[in-house]
């Protein structure tokens, strides 16, 4: 049974491997910490922007998965730091011997799996943002006037603050406001002829105007903000609708939010990829170090050459051994326990 | 009688030196913190210098920056001294410098305390510059064509949106200045002509405010024009309407922002000052205990450390004597004999 990918490791290369592993583990800790920070930032952003995403949107799953994956990567990094430190010190190594094996399995399966899932989400989810934003923003704009309806009374404030902070107006442009009644009926004068005409001329009885809320105003404009009668070119003298309109924000909130969230998801995705690479390297290095030291019987300073490897035998042999181990453990024959452990030990010490 | 005498054996001395070494490196970190606090405050003041008349005093951030740098320098030096204190040979090199160094440390601590106090006390001058600067800013709001002032409209609008304020003391300040440029007034309209004629200086004053005064929390769309005219808007009473516009004036808003900033910086600086005082006291104990080791060949022996060799009034008297001696230094040798005996007491 030949070991898989063996590597001869005399004392000096072993020491260098341990030192390099120590450095890589600290980098992994850093990367895990950065992922934690980035996903926490994205979660905070989503809490503020939650009203503008449709409730059925799965996007919040991405930062949640990344948070867990980042925590596991951080843990793996710390384990790597401790183990590589211990492998250079004969007094510190013995407690690590028993723990390292299961930790490597947990790190590969758990950590690797989580990172792969998070990466997959980072690639797949941003695509669903478009529809979610379309629906969410449409609902928010429609409820702008409902400042007294329970459940939607915050919509006006949130939309105004969104437009002020992100420098956008409407969904795709300021004309979206012309198709929505954004003035609450409570503040419409029923005795005003203009109001009555407008409502009667509309099929659904909505009061539509060619005006926009104040939050669409652009402070960079040289003239005081023009909010009303925007389609009437004679209403505001000296206002030429054909000139570049600095009066209101030109971008729509849909584009702005989409770009913003996709950028954040992209950053998170690339950090997850880098962490995945780092974690794979750290786990590989730990495995080689562990098997090399096992070959010496746990004696760190042994001058002899040993071989480090990934797996003791081929995949088939490994599965057979695992099957045998599992089978023996299930059989109710307590005196057979020591021989059950002997075959795997023989595999490990075969060098 | 020595002040606050403490006995030190070898182990205690070593622990003191090691503890001080660690504390000094933390103190270097604290110095970096003070430096960055000063830098942050300077940047914040610079950001809003347009509404501060460009005459605001940068004394507080500059002194914080200076104290931060000095703290880093002194504390890394002290760390080196504490590290060498464990080795008698290296310590002998530092011995002659320690007393003046400690005097400088005490001076540094006093100045740090004064700077911390300044953080709390200097908001009064800021209030005046803010009031002046905002008044001018609002005056130039309409001059978007005048080079040198064309950015004022954008600055004031962004300020009012960010700090949730309106005008200097309140929104009525906007009623007293012409904030709409003549360039955008339709002089063929009767209403415009009437307003300008009825004003003594020929200004176009309205009871309206810019859009940046609007409060997003208001349940109704923002009422910016004809604010004091109840009949111009349906179901509106300007006396009871509180949510329509921001109520706070920008002077109060900015002042409270900078005050809270400087107060928290003052608190942090005071805490760091306490830390520095502890380090200075520890260094003094280390110095006196190491100086009083009876036999340098036997570092294991016990020695005593203290803060002051004599009690406070006696030390003060000796200090005054040495100052007087400096004054008499030019006199004849007869006095020199007296001066020779005075240092032995000090």
TrEMBL record, chain A:
Chain spans, region Disordered: 330-351
PROSITE patterns reported for this sequence: RDS_ROM1
One of the GO BP terms on file: visual perception
Residues spanning the membrane: 21-42, 62-83, 104-125, 264-286
Coiled-coil portions: none
Bilayer topology annotation: Multi-pass membrane protein
One GO location term (cellular component): membrane
InterPro entries to which the protein is assigned, alphabetical: Peripherin/rom-1, Peripherin/rom-1_CS, Peripherin_LEL, Tetraspanin/Peripherin, Tetraspanin_EC2_sf
Entry annotated with the keyword Zinc-finger: no
Main location, first listed in the record: other
Cell location: Cell projection, Cilium, Photoreceptor outer segment; Membrane; Photoreceptor inner segment
Keyword Transmembrane helix assigned: yes
Domain of life: Eukaryota
This protein's UniProt keywords: Membrane, Sensory transduction, Transmembrane, Transmembrane helix, Vision
Family of the protein in this entry: Belongs to the PRPH2/ROM1 family.
Protein name: Retinal outer segment membrane protein 1
UniProtKB/TrEMBL annotation, chain B:
InterPro entries, alphabetized: Peripherin/rom-1, Peripherin/rom-1_CS, Peripherin_LEL, Tetraspanin/Peripherin, Tetraspanin_EC2_sf
Membrane topology: Multi-pass membrane protein
GO CC annotations on file: photoreceptor inner segment; photoreceptor outer segment; plasma membrane
PROSITE patterns per the UniProt record, alphabetical: RDS_ROM1 (PS00930)
Predominant location: other
GO biological process entries: cell adhesion; visual perception
Keywords linked to the UniProt accession: Cell adhesion, Disulfide bond, Glycoprotein, Membrane, Sensory transduction, Transmembrane, Transmembrane helix, Vision
Signal peptide: none
One family name in Pfam for this protein: Tetraspanin
Function: Essential for retina photoreceptor outer segment disk morphogenesis, may also play a role with ROM1 in the maintenance of outer segment disk structure. Required for the maintenance of retinal outer nuclear layer thickness. Required for the correct development and organization of the photoreceptor inner segment.
Protein name according to UniProt: Peripherin-2
Originating organism: Colobus angolensis palliatus
